[in-house]
Amino acid sequence: MQRTRFGDMACSIARTLDVAGEPWSPLILRDVFVGISRFDQLQADLGISRKVLTERLRWLEDSGVLERHRYSERPARYEYRLTAKGTELVEVLMVMVRWGDRWTAGEAGPPVLYRHRACGRVSHVELVCAHCREPMGADDIDVEAGPGSGLSSAAGRPGRRPVADAAHAPP
Amino acid sequence: MQRTRFGDMACSIARTLDVAGEPWSPLILRDVFVGISRFDQLQADLGISRKVLTERLRWLEDSGVLERHRYSERPARYEYRLTAKGTELVEVLMVMVRWGDRWTAGEAGPPVLYRHRACGRVSHVELVCAHCREPMGADDIDVEAGPGSGLSSAAGRPGRRPVADAAHAPP
DNA sequence: CTGCTCCGTTCTTTCAGGGAACTGACCGGG
DNA sequence: CCCGGTCAGTTCCCTGAAAGAACGGAGCAG
């Protein structure tokens, strides 16, 4: 957990960070996604302190991103699984992988490859507009105030990025 | 900065987190992206401690994600801009926004809207395969060891996720 | 020369992460 | 029946990083 609470900000980035923003959480989700799902496995694989791992797992469970599933009665044993909410969060990781591969992989090449089951090829993700299906990167959009911004209407003067600091309400 | 260094791990997620993984960095990038680019603006907008803001900006600059541009001589004044590397990192934020909008926005609706310049519509991003352009989410892929994995070849037995813990080399 | 803005340092306090030992329920073997 | 081993945590102390607030200094306006 970070010192400052992000969950109250009127910003979807901040609210996402509030769930999975501190450094270990994305790696925990990655491990659970690839099948490392038990406490000791996670601890050994990540090298995380058991204390912090416990805290993170509880937090992710409380956030509805992971669920704790008892796979053995009587020596009560648990494994963690991604919920639908958590599986969608993995998409964020996939884009992070893409960026890391491009900018930090070095000469060794990417450490992991993704095979797209639909077409059978080793591939990577690309961002497109949900409507026109054309590429939609950071340079292809304008930002506007939405209903949850705390502003009554979009009053930003026209420009490259109409609304600058309306992305999050004042305290 | 986190206690444990992620930059050395053979995992693109960890290496991305090493650059922008601690909680404030994504929000700094968001602000710079929407035009909040000066020190005092950032500090006031985020409510971050000035000390930490200084550290983060240096780190992001050293990582090649931001550049410091002097917009005024003689009362030397600077603003921060996204590099190409940083602009691509914003794509990760866009996917985080998508997730936050879907799962944490509540009844107020999303705080910000993105208008796709190519088609003119308010939209959101979707992940597709770079090859076949079909949807490519967490459930649509298999993971395999890549050249940078530290493994000589992909020896994982076939299954839903062929390579489980080969995603990152052993210590 | 007084106050103001901008962009940071420096200082102290506090709190979360790291590391390692400990618990406790269960199981298998000799 | 006791020993060792596995799994899933819990408890403890120590240190280092974040928060908060004060300070600095360069320039400029009045």
From TrEMBL, chains A, B:
The keyword Transcription applies. Residues 11-108 form the HTH hxlR-type domain. Residues 141-171 are annotated as: Disordered. InterPro entries: HTH_HxlR, WH-like_DNA-bd_sf, WH_DNA-bd_sf. PROSITE patterns: HTH_HXLR. The keyword Cell membrane does not apply. Pfam families: HxlR (PF01638). Keywords: DNA-binding, Transcription, Transcription regulation. This is Helix-turn-helix transcriptional regulator. It comes from Pseudonocardia humida.
